[in-house]
């Protein structure tokens, strides 16, 4: 086997192992059940954004996100949700100071939405549909989709969508008794 091909196969194997390891950390894994018909599994990144991950998990455990809609969805860019009013103007009322990192905004990256002020993130978040380099170092990356991206791809598009897709339930995997 050619060295390049072997190295590539090893990298893919390691990446798969990393994803599997992240998914095994149930305290830092979220289940996002969508009305598009499936479960999205998000591996949180407390190593990048410990305060954001802590706050998101608090809100998840309160049921804050259950029933909320994706109010801003731009094809080829991202799906934004987490606003209890469904307008893009609401939040939990608790701002979180920015935790910018070098993590890139790739397909499946979960990051905090914010206003122009860097420390204005609250409860709203977005999931990237593709690589969005211009967001790097300007928005707090706090997780990534490790499975179920096909359900994210089915979220209704629009600003706002005519019939917005909903989060049926969002849970910390460690709390789920199945």
From TrEMBL:
One of its GO terms (biological process) is protein folding. Residues 1-20 form the signal peptide. InterPro entries: Cyclophilin-like_dom_sf, Cyclophilin-type_PPIase_CS, Cyclophilin-type_PPIase_dom, Cyclophilin_A-like. Its EC number is 5.2.1.8. Residues 38-178 form the PPIase cyclophilin-type domain. It comes from the Bacteria. It is an enzyme of class 5 (isomerase). GO terms for molecular function: peptidyl-prolyl cis-trans isomerase activity. Keywords: Isomerase, Rotamase, Signal. SUPFAM superfamilies: Cyclophilin-like. It catalyses: [protein]-peptidylproline (omega=180) = [protein]-peptidylproline (omega=0). PPIases accelerate the folding of proteins. It catalyzes the cis-trans isomerization of proline imidic peptide bonds in oligopeptides. Belongs to the cyclophilin-type PPIase family. PANTHER family: PEPTIDYL-PROLYL CIS-TRANS ISOMERASE-RELATED, PEPTIDYLPROLYL ISOMERASE DOMAIN AND WD REPEAT-CONTAINING PROTEIN 1. This is Peptidyl-prolyl cis-trans isomerase. It comes from Gimibacter soli.
